[in-house]
């Protein structure tokens, strides 16, 4: 298949690109390096010239925090919606959208709400679509995984409030395998949460990562929620993930059933493991 892949330079997109190429697909990267900047791709007409001969589209573009030049609404909402409408006009039937867990009726953050715009647009079109909503993804090269590894290596583990925020981490190889399965599936029109079987509290996730680093358990430093918000307000200058809204999303602790995805894949996702955490390749099972 000829597959247009946006976000091919990112963590998820890069791993998907490798798997697609390994499975014999022709990957057409649509990145800023290829002249495709989502801030300027806001109408179907902008996308149509890029869809000639394309069999499927996978959208992996996203930001976790807004910057002076990168805003949620154009990047998560308007540009992907324009792309999906162009797919409909050009007869590209299979479209896979990487959304995020929590992009549903409960969404309160600008991050989730902007993703919801594109998810809803895609679901409204007469296409063979998949909306995939991954939980926290771990694996080498992931920005959140790297930030959490750095936190886990500290002698005191800083956690907001009681540290009991729920996480269902999923390895990047299972996200990639889900995308490959979507491409090969006989029919689409499905929204799937990609969540691991194991639920951790945030504090336990840091302890688990610590163990994976070969370090003993560490005492937990509970940072009162109000103080954590103030620290995040200052910290976003150092790391774009440190946004107060991201702390609110962590606090919300999104959870979902792992059953629908297990049914779709015909297997359960891999349990968390140190070997996966440090593995260099996503190495998914794939179908050309
Ligand atoms: N990682 C996770 O744990 C996780 C979990 C759930 C959902 N997600 C969602 O999955 C998506 C990808 O996540 P990721 O971890 O792969 O993030 P990432 O590594 O930061 O990759 C983001 C991608 O978006 C591209 N991008 C950003 N601004 C752009 C623009 N103006 N025009 C074109 N491309 C642009 C980046 O391209 P450049 O290289 O040019 O910057 C990069 O390819 C995001 O929407 C994220 O919210 C991620």
Describe this structure in words.
- With 288 residues, the protein is an alpha/beta fold.
- The protein has one domain (2-278): Rossmann fold (3-Layer(aba) Sandwich), CATH 3.40.50.720.
- The protein is built from eleven helices and twelve strands.
- The strands form four sheets. It has a six-stranded parallel sheet, with helices on both faces.
- Helix 1 (11-22) packs across helix 6 (172-184) and helix 5 (143-152) packs across helix 7 (202-212).
- The radius of gyration is 19 Å and the shape is globular.
- The chain binds NADP nicotinamide-adenine-dinucleotide phosphate.
- NADP nicotinamide-adenine-dinucleotide phosphate (NAP) binds next to helix 1 and helix 5.
CATH architecture annotation name: 3-Layer(aba) Sandwich
What's the rounded overall pLDDT mean? Answer: 94
The biggest sheet, with number of strands, parallel, antiparallel or mixed sense and barrel status, is:
6 strands, parallel
| H and E order | EHEHEHEHEEHEEEHEEHEHHHH
Entry keywords:
288 residues, alpha/beta, Rossmann fold, 6-stranded parallel sheet, two-stranded parallel ribbon, 16% strand, globular, disordered C terminus, binds NADP nicotinamide-adenine-dinucleotide phosphate
Tell me briefly what this model is:
The protein has 288 residues and is of the alpha/beta class.
